């Protein structure tokens, strides 16, 4: 039974959860209902806040198979609880014409994934379950995903489309014909409507949800309590503040929902044509699409309403929604393994691997190309929230909570205040009972002590600093959709940068070419656009080997291709739709040089070309295109020169890859050295190759030939050298970050050596630093995985490893400060493949590599996310700065993600910079630090405010007195609110400093600061309270008391005689009250000044003019009414007249208090960090952050860093299924 009760769903994935089954219990419901009535609804609120308690209080445990309610708990560090109701999907209402077996499959759980499994046992399995209750399926919905009961695995599982476990062959053989109407209706029932529904909640719903926040409930309790105590004014002030706070919160939440809704609504419902089994075309709404439908892509393009794989024709797609690149991409049909002679075997279809053949939801198809009479078709693989866009929207709708120490500490701190309030509560009750006070008064006064200790204005006060920071960020062009992240940005100690478009300029410039003749490199040439080269194969390759297309008469495509094509100055002409329709084949795209470049009548410029008389026009038709594949790192085309008998194959791509596909005799001997020279200088190098194809290859054969048949045995033609210039501000920004002890890391999709070179150029890697390249190889042929370590610079300088000079091995520098440990002089660089192998097979090395890993090249989007996670696992606070949605996952996962593009994709990033420059990173960190320090100041101030007021009230309760309503109002409104909202206005300090602000409230220096101020304030208040009783003129105050001995006192007293009865009831007016009120009023201002920190994170206080003005005004006002009493003010504030010498004594107490408070706070600031640990007897403290602890360990590790030319092998298999599992986030 126990095994039945707890299972795991989404195992090994990001949203892995434990699942427990429960059934509703009537007797428990009855008990809870009674409890709700007895507690006046409070129990209901408690159960609303705690889903786990709600389920456990009203249900009993049951087997998951038969339960009515499921309780879910995430397995990550947050351990969050959710509950969901089990629903029944009835299939009886839908008679399905053909697939009786399909409904049986469902009871067997196989419909959870639409994959036909041809094994015999499976068929038996289906028949075995045919008698089961197959017409009803149990499911629940969580975070917009439906989980169905799957009998095979005895667990709930979400419905998968054709994106998992389907082979490329079966896509063509089983799915390309389309669905019958019956099958479509059946799948529609299971998959539901194809839409990414972002419902904008009604204002009323949002309001209820916001108002039921525990803080607002506490405020409501406080307001009711104060109203019964006739303390209406402050209650009204809190109500107004709460309303403003709730309204602004509602506005921003609703605005985000509307923004998201608008982003998704663009394709919510369009009409689409689908092919049915009997070749008929049916027009349906896009909301009715299901996986397996064959969708016809219209000629004039469309916005994709789902994820689909292309099986016919070619599409030009704008994917800026997903990738952040506004460059149109050419998508071709999925290779059909059964047609290709040298097929890729029966590989499984995967949207990520086959993204060049997949049309993603939300992307725009601009144009289609096709065979005449054949439609451009795509098979729907995923719909609704399962699509790539749906997953993006889900991650925005249900973000992972940000775990930040400040917020955790804030709750701990509140608990401490609640404990203090509890002590006061008990003291008040005991004291009042001993003094025989009425029961009603006891209840109100004891509850009042709780509202004094836990200030209801705290949430508003805490958010003030963040709101001001957000406003300042907006002024410098940084927009924020997640304000609580601003504080976290103040903690960043490592920033990852994308390279292209972030550190460097977006485009590449053509620096020159280096051609090869007779397997020798010629000297580099700058100009490609000249008469000598116009008919060479080199230029022909540049002219044809690209994915450019004309959209509304303008050439567009990959910027790299565009630059190369512009460099040769040729003209591209595409066939119009009418022309394509006239011919029974795809009309080729034609390229030709401008007339002025063509010589009058010279024979071909290359020996390989046929020496027959050239026609008047020289043009090349592009017959077939194999688009660029990042996995293959190359693209190729088949082209034919007009009038030529044979076709040509041209190929371009990564130099190492191209060279390996060429005849070895055509590749120059010094190829490796030349290439390395260029990449070290930071150039992007692309190699070109060519070969003549056999004359037997006809047009139609070429259309069906596989890539591998074309891309081999080529002639190496040379290199194109592209320059990627650093942005002007890059070196300066990185230097600022380094000075501030903030590590910088490069994460790029570019080549490794280019990335290392750019890292050196921009100062990420200093000239004297060593770079160690980790090249990891996966297990192969029974051998374990291994890592080869190369030293990037020393390798080329030395012929063999023993010749490496001793200085090539990095020196370990022992630093006094732990902060500097990461500044030792070696860096690791690796590519995406190596990174994946290391993550999977070398788990123990990951933290060590994270400590010094600086360059990560050729990284895929999900690998970028994994890198961010790996860095966070060693306790770095990670920032990420990127310019596209390919960085989307990483931007979301980082503590502070800044998107430099304003595309829709930036919805996922917490911060978006209007100016596409990395100078926004230091600005954001500065503002984050200022906001963080402001939060600390406000928190400390609010803590002191509650403790000072709590102590004042406790002292006065001892003589059965209290502060008057207007005294409370003056302190709470005039002093506290004014001070809190002005003390948060300090702008950020002008530059980043190496010192870092504390991450949590519970740190030695901070607690010492708060506790010392509490002791000082309590001391001076007690001094005043007890000293006044020792004065010769002191007596227990009554309306006729005349301690001042002035004639005016008669007038003063007469004005109060009317209220005598009321005064007797509350006993507000007395000498103790007046003394405590004046001393405590000054104390609030003293701690406000003591806690208002300026440098090094904020501008000094004297530059915060509003704060300075408020504090001076309040000081002057309180001093004035203390030294020169004004009858009307005294009457309102219920202050009694005391002799002048006592007023001066109070002033002296206040001055001494101010001196002591500010001196102690300054001392804690200056000496706290070094003296406190020493005083507490922990001189050698183990650092809290894992990366610091690791750095300490590595200092004494003789095996680290690895020696040059060595290899590290993985240990034997860790688990039965291989080694540590690697989780991929899409």
Automatic annotation (TrEMBL):
Keywords: ATP-binding, Endosome, Magnesium, Membrane, Metal-binding, Nucleotide-binding, Phosphoprotein, Translocase, Transmembrane, Transmembrane helix. Its main location: membrane. One of its GO terms (molecular function) is P-type ion transporter activity. PROSITE patterns: ATPASE_E1_E2. GO terms for cellular component: early endosome membrane; late endosome membrane; recycling endosome membrane. InterPro entries: ATPase_P-typ_cation-transptr_N, ATPase_P-typ_cyto_dom_N, ATPase_P-typ_P_site, ATPase_P-typ_TM_dom_sf, ATPase_P-typ_transduc_dom_A_sf, ATPase_P-type_domA, HAD-like_sf, HAD_sf. The keyword Lipid biosynthesis does not apply. Signal peptide: none annotated. Residues 13-150 form the P5B-type ATPase N-terminal domain. Gene3D superfamilies: Calcium-transporting ATPase, cytoplasmic domain N, Calcium-transporting ATPase, cytoplasmic transduction domain A, Calcium-transporting ATPase, transmembrane domain, HAD superfamily/HAD-like. Residues 272-396 form the P-type ATPase A domain. It catalyses: putrescine(out) + ATP + H2O = putrescine(in) + ADP + phosphate + H(+). GO terms for biological process: intracellular calcium ion homeostasis. It is a multi-pass membrane protein. Its EC number is 7.6.2.16. The keyword Coiled coil does not apply. It holds the Pfam family Cation_ATPase. It is found in: Early endosome membrane; Late endosome membrane; Recycling endosome membrane. Belongs to the cation transport ATPase (P-type) (TC 3.A.3) family. Type V subfamily. This is Polyamine-transporting ATPase 13A3. It comes from Piliocolobus tephrosceles.
């Amino acid at each position: 039974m126990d095994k039945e009760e707890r299972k795991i769903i989404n195992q090994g994935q990001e949203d892995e959860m434990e699942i427990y089954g429960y059934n509703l219990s009537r007797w428990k419901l009855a008990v809870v209902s009674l409890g709700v009535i007895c507690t006046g609804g409070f129990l209901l609120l408690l159960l609303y806040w705690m889903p786990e308690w709600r389920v456990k209080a009203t249900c009993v445990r049951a087997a998951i198979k038969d339960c009515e309610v499921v309780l879910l708990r995430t397995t990550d560090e947050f351990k969050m609880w959710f509950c969901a109701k089990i629903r029944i999907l009835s299939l009886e209402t839908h008679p399905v014409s053909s697939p009786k077996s399909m409904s049986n499959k469902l009871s067997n759980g196989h419909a959870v994934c639409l994959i036909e499994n041809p094994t015999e046992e499976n068929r038996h399995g289906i028949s075995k379950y045919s008698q089961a209750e197959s017409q009803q399926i149990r499911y629940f919905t969580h975070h917009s995903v439906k989980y169905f009961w799957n009998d095979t695995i005895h667990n709930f599982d979400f419905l998968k489309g054709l994106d998992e476990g389907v082979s490329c062959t079966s896509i063509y053989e089983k799915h390309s014909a389309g669905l019958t109407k019956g099958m479509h209706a059946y799948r529609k029932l299971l998959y539901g409507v194809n839409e990414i529904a972002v419902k904008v909640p009604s204002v009323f719903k949002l309001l209820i949800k916001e108002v039921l926040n525990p803080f607002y409930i506490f405020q409501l309790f406080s307001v009711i309590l104060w109203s019964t105590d006739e303390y209406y004014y402050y209650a009204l002030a809190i109500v107004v503040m709460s309303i403003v706070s709730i309204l602004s919160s509602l506005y921003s939440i609703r605005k985000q929902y509307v923004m998201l809704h608008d982003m998704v609504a663009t394709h919510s419902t369009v009409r689409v044509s689908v092919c049915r089994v009997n070749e008929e075309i049916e027009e349906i709404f896009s909301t009715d699409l299901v996986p397996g439908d064959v969708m016809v892509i219209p000629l004039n393009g469309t916005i994709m309403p789902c994820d689909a794989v292309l099986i016919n024709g070619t599409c030009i797609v704008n994917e800026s929604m997903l990738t952040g690149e506004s460059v149109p991409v050419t998508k071709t049909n999925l290779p059909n393994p059964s047609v290709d002679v040298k097929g890729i075997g029966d590989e499984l279809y995967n949207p990520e691997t086959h993204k060049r053949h997949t049309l993603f939801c939300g992307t725009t198809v601009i144009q289609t190309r096709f065979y005449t009479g054949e439609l451009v078709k795509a098979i729907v693989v995923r719909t609704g929230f399962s699509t790539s866009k749906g997953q993006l929207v889900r991650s925005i709708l249900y973000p992972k909570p940000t775990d930040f120490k400040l917020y955790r500490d804030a709750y701990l701190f509140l608990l401490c205040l609640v404990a203090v309030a509890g002590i006061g509560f008990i003291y008040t009750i005991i004291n009042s009972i001993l003094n025989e006070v009425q029961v009603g008064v006891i209840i109100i006064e004891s509850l009042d002590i709780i509202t004094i200790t836990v200030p209801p204005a705290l949430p508003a006060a805490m958010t003030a600093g963040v709101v001001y920071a957000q406003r300042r960020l907006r002024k410098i062009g940084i927009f924020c959709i997640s304000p609580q992240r601003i504080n976290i940005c103040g903690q960043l100690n490592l920033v990852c940068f994308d390279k292209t478009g972030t550190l460097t300029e977006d485009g590449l410039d053509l620096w020159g070419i280096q051609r090869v003749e007779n397997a020798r490199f010629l000297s580099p040439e700058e100009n490609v656009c000249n008469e000598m080269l116009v008919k060479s194969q080199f230029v022909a390759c540049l002219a044809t080997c690209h994915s450019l297309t004309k959209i509304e008469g303008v050439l567009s495509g990959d910027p790299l291709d565009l630059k190369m094509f512009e460099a040769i100055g040729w003209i591209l002409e595409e066939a119009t739709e009418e022309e394509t329709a006239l011919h029974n084949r795809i009309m080729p795209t034609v390229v030709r040089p401008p007339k002025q470049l063509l010589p009058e009548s010279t024979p071909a410029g290359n020996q390989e070309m046929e020496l027959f008389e050239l026609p008047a026009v020289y043009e090349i038709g592009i017959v077939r295109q194999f688009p660029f594949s990042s996995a293959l790192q190359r693209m190729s085309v088949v082209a034919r020169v007009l009038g030529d008998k044979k076709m040509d194959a041209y190929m371009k791509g990564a130099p190492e890859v191209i060279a390996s596909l060429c005849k070895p005799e055509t590749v120059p001997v010094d190829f490796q050295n030349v290439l390395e020279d260029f990449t070290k200088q930071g150039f992007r190098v692309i190699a070109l190759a060519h070969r003549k194809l056999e004359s037997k290859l006809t047009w139609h054969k070429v259309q069906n030939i596989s890539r591998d048949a074309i891309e081999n045995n080529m002639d190496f033609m040379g290199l194109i050298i592209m320059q990627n210039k650093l942005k002007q501000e890059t070196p300066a920004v990185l230097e600022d970050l380094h000075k501030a002890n903030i590590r910088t890391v490069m994460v790029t999709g570019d080549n490794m050596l280019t990335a290392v070179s750019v890292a050196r150029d921009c100062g990420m890697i200093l000239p004297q630093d060593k770079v160690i390249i980790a090249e990891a190889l996966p297990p192969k042929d029974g051998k374990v995985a291994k890592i080869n370590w190369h030293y990037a610079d020393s390798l080329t300088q030395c012929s063999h490893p023993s010749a490496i000079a001793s200085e090539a091995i990095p020196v370990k520098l022992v630093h006094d400060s732990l902060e500097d440990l990461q500044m030792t002089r070696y860096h690791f660089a690796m590519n995406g493949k190596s990174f994946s192998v290391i993550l999977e097979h070398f788990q123990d090395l990951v933290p060590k590599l994270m400590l010094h890993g600086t360059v990560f090249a050729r990284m895929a989007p999900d690998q970028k996310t994994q890198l961010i996670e790996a860095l966070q696992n060693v306790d770095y606070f990670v920032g990420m700065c990127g310019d596209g949605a390919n960085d989307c996952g990483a931007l979301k996962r980082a503590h502070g993600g800044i998107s430099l593009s304003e595309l829709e994709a930036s919805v996922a990033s917490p911060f978006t910079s209007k100016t596409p420059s990395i100078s926004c990173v230091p600005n954001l960190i500065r503002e984050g630090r200022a906001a963080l320090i402001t939060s600390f100041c406000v928190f400390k101030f609010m803590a002191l405010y509650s403790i000072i007021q709590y102590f004042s009230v406790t002292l006065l309760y001892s003589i059965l007195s209290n502060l008057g309503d207007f005294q409370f109002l003056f302190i709470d409104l005039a002093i506290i609110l004014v001070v809190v909202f002005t003390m948060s206005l300090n702008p950020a300090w002008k530059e980043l400093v190496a010192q870092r602000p504390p991450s949590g409230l519970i740190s030695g220096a901070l607690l010492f600061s708060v506790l010392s101020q509490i002791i000082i304030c309590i001391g001076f208040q007690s001094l005043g309270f007890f000293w006044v009783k020792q004065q010769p003129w002191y007596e227990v105050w009554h309306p006729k008391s005349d301690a001042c001995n002035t004639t005016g006192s008669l007038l003063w007293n007469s004005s109060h005689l009317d209220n005598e009865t009321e005064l007797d009831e509350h006993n507000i007016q007395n000498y103790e009250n007046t003394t405590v009120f004046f001393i405590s009023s000054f104390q609030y201002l003293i701690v406000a000044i003591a806690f208002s920190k300026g440098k090094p994170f904020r501008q000094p206080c004297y530059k915060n003019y509003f704060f300075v003005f408020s504090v001076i005004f309040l000081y002057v006002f309180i001093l004035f009414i203390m030294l020169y009493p004004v009858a009307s003010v005294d009457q309102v504030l219920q202050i009694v007249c005391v002799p002048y010498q006592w007023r001066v004594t109070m002033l002296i107490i206040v001055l001494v208090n101010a001196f002591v408070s500010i001196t102690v706070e300054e001392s804690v600031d200056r000496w706290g960090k070094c003296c406190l640990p020493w005083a507490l007897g922990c001189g050698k403290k183990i650092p809290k952050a894992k990366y610091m602890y690791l750095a300490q360990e590595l200092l004494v590790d003789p095996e680290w860093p690895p020696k040059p030319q060595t290899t590290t092998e993985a240990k034997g298999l860790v688990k039965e299924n291989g080694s540590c599992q690697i989780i991929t986030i899409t």
